[in-house]
Amino acid sequence: MRMGKASYPTRYRAAALALAAAVAAACAGDVPMKEEIAAEDRASRLAQVMRIAEATRQGGDLVSAASLFRRAHGMEPDAAAPSIGLARTSVAAGAATEAADVYENAIKRAPDNADARREYGKLLIALDRPERAAEQFEAAIRLEPADHRARNGLGVALDLAGDHDAAQQSYIDGMERSPDDVNLRNNLALSLALAGAFDESIEMFRALAEAPCATPRVRQNLALVYGLAGQPEQAAAVARIDLDDASVRNNLAYYQTLRGLSGRSRAAAILGRHGQGDTLPADPESMDAKGPAE
Predict the structure, then answer these.
(1) Domains (ranges, CATH) in the chain?
(2) Is-contact 226 232, C-beta < 8 A?
(3) Do the Cβ atoms of 221 and 190 come closer than 8 Å?
(4) Lowest-confidence segment of 72-81, 117-126, 151-160, 211-220 by average pLDDT
C-alpha cells in the first residue's frame, strides 16, 4: 500500500513533464526565427521610406523624393515599387532619359505590372517613340483587358504611327468598356480627322461640344477639324466662343499650316506630342489628344 500511495505523485509529475514538453514543442513553431524578424523589419522600414517618398513626390519636392526612392531601391534592389516611384518622379521633373531607363528596369523586375507598362507607354509617346509605346500598351491590355486607359494610349500611339484604322478600333474597344469617357471620344474624333474623314469627325465633335459638360478644349478641337476640312468660317465661329479675335486669327493660320503637313508630322502636331530631346511636355501624364494652342 505504501508503494502504491507513493506511485501516484510520481505518475503525475511524469505526466506534467510530458505535457509541458508537448506544449513547448507545439509553441516552438510559433516563435519567429531571427531571419524572419530581420525580413519583417526590412519590409517595415522599406514601407516607411516608400510612404515618405510618395508623400514627398506629391508635395512637389522632386529632388528629395528621387533621393528617397533611390534609398528604397538600395534597401530592396529586386523590388519594382521603388523603381516605379523613381520613374514617376523623373517624369514629373522632366528627366525623360532617366525615366525611360528606370521604367525599363522596373518592368524587367515586374513584367506583370500593368500600371508600369501603361505609364511607360505614355512616356514613350512623349518621347515620340509610338511603336515602342504601342508594345507597352498592348502588354498592359493583355494583363488588364478591361483597362480603357491602356486602349486610349494604344490608340494615340497607333495614330502617331500612322495606323488610323487600328487606332480607331482601339478607341472603340475602350468606349465599350467606358462609354462615358470623353477622352476616348475626343481622340476617336481626332483620329477620324487625321484619316481624312472630316464629316464623321465634325459630327462627333459637334455632339461633344453641345453636351452640357463640354469644355473649351472640345470646342477648339471642333474648330480645328473645321479648319482642317477647309471651312475657315465655321472654324472661326466656333473658336470665338472661347477666344478673342487675335487668338482666333492665330489659330486660323495654324490650321492652314496643318493643312500643309501630311502623315506623321500632322498627327504629332495635332496630338501635341513633340518629343524634343530630353524634355517632356508640360503635362506628361496627360494621355488625351490636344488641339491647337489657345
Answers:
(1) 46-111 (1.25.40.10)
(2) yes
(3) yes
(4) 72-81
The amino acid occupying position 56 is T
Q: How far apart are CA 250 and CA 271, in angstroms?
A: 18
Burial profile 159-188: b = 16 or more Cβ within 10 angstroms, e = fewer: bbbebbebbbbbbebbbeebeebbbbbbbb
Helix H segments across 32-95?
A: 34-58, 62-75, 81-93
Q: What is the pLDDT of residue 282?
A: 34
Q: Which long-range contacts (CB under 8 A, 24 or more apart) does 150-155 make?
A: 150/114, 150/117, 150/118, 150/121, 151/177, 151/184, 152/181, 152/183, 152/184, 152/187, 152/287, 152/288, 153/118, 153/121, 153/122, 153/125, 153/287, 154/121, 155/184, 155/187, 155/188, 155/191
Nearest CA-CA partner of 50 in 91, 90, 98, 84: 84
Residues 3 and 81: their CA atoms lie apart, in Å, by 72
* Cβ contact 65:57 at 8 Å: yes
Are 186 and 154 in contact by the 8 Å Cβ rule? The answer is no
- Residues 108 and 139: their CA atoms lie apart, in Å, by 13
Q: What is the value of pTM for the model shown?
A: 0.76
Over residues 37-57, mean pLDDT: 82
Tell whether the model's pLDDT for residue 257 goes beyond 70.
yes
122 vs 99: CA distance, rounded Å: 11
DSSP class of 283: S
Helical H segments across 94-197, by residue range: 96-109, 114-126, 130-143, 148-160, 164-177, 182-194
Q: Is the pLDDT of residue 149 over 90?
A: yes
What share of the chain has pLDDT > 90, as a percent?
52
